UniProtKB/TrEMBL annotation:
UniProt keyword Ribosomal protein present: no
Pfam families (UniProt xref): NTP_transferase (PF00483)
Family as reported in the entry's similarity comment: Belongs to the UDPGP type 2 family.
UniProt protein name: UTP--glucose-1-phosphate uridylyltransferase
GO MF annotations in UniProt: UTP:glucose-1-phosphate uridylyltransferase activity
Record keywords, A-Z: Nucleotidyltransferase, Transferase
EC numbers: 2.7.7.9
NCBIfam families in the record: galU
Catalytic activity, as annotated: alpha-D-glucose 1-phosphate + UTP + H(+) = UDP-alpha-D-glucose + diphosphate
The organism of origin for this protein: freshwater metagenome
Signal peptide limits: none
Recorded coiled-coil stretches: none
Length: 295
């Protein structure tokens, strides 16, 4: 069993973002702002808060803006300094200092399983986390920390699981669970995007994973699965042949920003939570609801 402390996170960010066209025609979907911060920055901050400071972003074509965002921008820093905009200057500098961020290209978009497999050399023979950028967690990294904790305790992989409406299960990886204790299950089996009538449960895999390095051997063995893609879920299914995999069940704090409605909800709710914006946004929403006769 490996009890290696986890310091590495892999963030697949090679998707085309077709659901957000035309906004994503010439910019990565990971750079779409939630209030005033790009979505991927929330994900990296979540990882860093959980002690994962070595971040590998798996990118593809047209993703240069992500690298620029986490790099120094001397011209901008100089300008902000000249204008005495100290708070903004600090904010801009922090984005380039928050973690040790590496990039690798997934040359062909062959699926999530393939995207994770290109991280093999960087990760080496260590446990690591995978965070998907479409899921934004607003929970002070509680979920990720609990998964890291499960790995520390059992030396095994852990998946984030959430109960979803039965008819939605076909959008997710779905597990057959065996309860261990409150909030923790053992994964008996896993299947990618089942039809509701074939789903073993309503527990969906949400985009947070902690893996033992053996997942890479499993990734080497998978064949194209659901949607003709190399699926991470199928590699987890192979991993289950030799290792126990746990599931951490959580309820709140997640926005699926790959869905337009959740993207908008995240913007509104996170703006409401901000001391500098919240009161004004609340007032605006109340007025809007009244003016439009929405309730
Ligand atoms: C991916 C995974 C799926 C998981 C989901 C979580 O699907 O393949 O197992 O449940 O992320 O968001 P995608 O959303 O890329 O179709």
């Amino acid at each position: 069993m490996s009890s290696h402390a986890i310091t590495k996170a892999v963030i697949p960010a090679a998707g085309l973002g077709t659901r957000f066209l035309p906004a994503t025609k010439s910019q990565p979907k990971e750079m779409l702002p939630i209030v005033d911060k790009p979505a991927i920055q929330y994900v990296i901050e979540e990882a860093v808060r959980a002690g994962l400071t070595d971040i590998l972003v798996v990118t593809g074509r047209g993703k240069r803006a992500i690298e620029d965002h986490f790099d120094r921008n001397f011209e901008l820093e100089y300008y902000l300094e000249q204008q005495s905009k100290t708070d903004l200057l600090r904010e801009v500098q922090l984005t380039s200092e928050m973690a040790d961020i590496h990039y690798i290209r997934q040359r062909d978009p062959l699926g999530l399983g393939h995207a994770v497999s290109v991280a093999r050399e960087h990760v080496g023979n260590e446990p690591f986390a995978v965070l998907l950028g479409d899921d934004i967690m607003v929970d002070d990294s509680k979920l990720l920390l609990s998964m890291i904790d499960i790995h520390a305790r059992y030396g095994r992989s852990a998946l984030a699981l959430k109960k979803v409406p039965h008819e939605s299960i076909s959008s997710y990886g779905c597990v057959e669970p065996e309860p261990v204790h409150d909030g923790l299950v053992q994964v008996r089996s896993i299947v990618e995007k089942p039809k509701p009538e074939d789903a073993p449960s309503d527990l969906a895999v949400i985009g947070r994973y902690v893996f033992t390095p053996e997942i890479f051997d499993a990734l080497d063995r998978i064949q194209p699965g659901a949607g003709g893609e190399l699926q991470l879920t199928d590699a987890i299914s192979l991993l289950l042949e030799t290792q126990t995999v746990y599931g951490c069940v959580f309820e709140s704090g997640r926005y699926d920003i790959g869905q337009k409605i959740d993207f908008l909800r995240a913007n509104v709710e996170l703006a409401l939570d901000r001391p500098d914006l919240g009161p004004e946004v609340a007032e605006f929403l109340v007025q809007l609801v009244k003016d439009r006769g929405l309730i």
